[in-house]
Amino acid sequence: MSRQSHHQLRIIGGQWRSRRLRFPAIDGLRPTMDRVRETVFNWLQTDIQGARVLDAFAGSGALGFEALSRGAKEVVFLEKHAKAALQLKENLKQLEARNAQVWAGDALIWLEQHPEPYDLVFLDPPFGKALLQPAIDSLTLLPGALVYIEHEAALAPVFPAHWQELKNKGTKEFTFRLFEVGDAA
């Protein structure tokens, strides 16, 4: 029996509810679980419609596709792994989504070169790679922007003083949090 080269994720809500999308079997690629996504999008339900969204370290694209399905105006997917980036593009084509783009490259370089404001940013970098803190430090966001962060439970990132934590949940393995950006002093 051959090893499956693709896995699937299910979109939970919105126009593409229950649609299944493929993603490649890549070490370290861990789509945000359905029940976590459901919680996160319950937190965000009034903030998605018309939002400009950045899905940094997109991987399977689970968070970005969920945002598109629920009415985000635009989603930019950043993904370093070429196979994963190609599958993100294929999934966008399959959904006929024209309000999204995939950038295949290093998210930290992209953040440095494109200090654009977004309404909502998803930061869920691969665990154990020391990518979260540099990503947080690279973000340029306007007051009112929301930032979703998923990280290893043992990690203690330093967040900007003007970010207010709105929600926080976790397991023994990981923590997920939602912040709102305030006025920088």
TrEMBL record:
Domain of life of the native organism: Bacteria
EC number(s) from the headed UniProt entry: 2.1.1.171
This protein's UniProt keywords: Methyltransferase, rRNA processing, S-adenosyl-L-methionine, Transferase
Catalytic reaction(s) noted: guanosine(966) in 16S rRNA + S-adenosyl-L-methionine = N(2)-methylguanosine(966) in 16S rRNA + S-adenosyl-L-homocysteine + H(+)
TM annotation in the entry: none
Keyword check for Translocase: no
Keyword check for Secreted: no
Pfam families to which the protein is assigned, alphabetical: Cons_hypoth95 (PF03602)
Signal sequence range: none
Similarity comment text for this entry: Belongs to the methyltransferase superfamily. RsmD family.
Family matches, as NCBIfam families: 16S rRNA (guanine(966)-N(2))-methyltransferase RsmD
Function text: Specifically methylates the guanine in position 966 of 16S rRNA in the assembled 30S particle.
Stated name of the protein: Ribosomal RNA small subunit methyltransferase D
Gene symbol of the encoding locus: rsmD
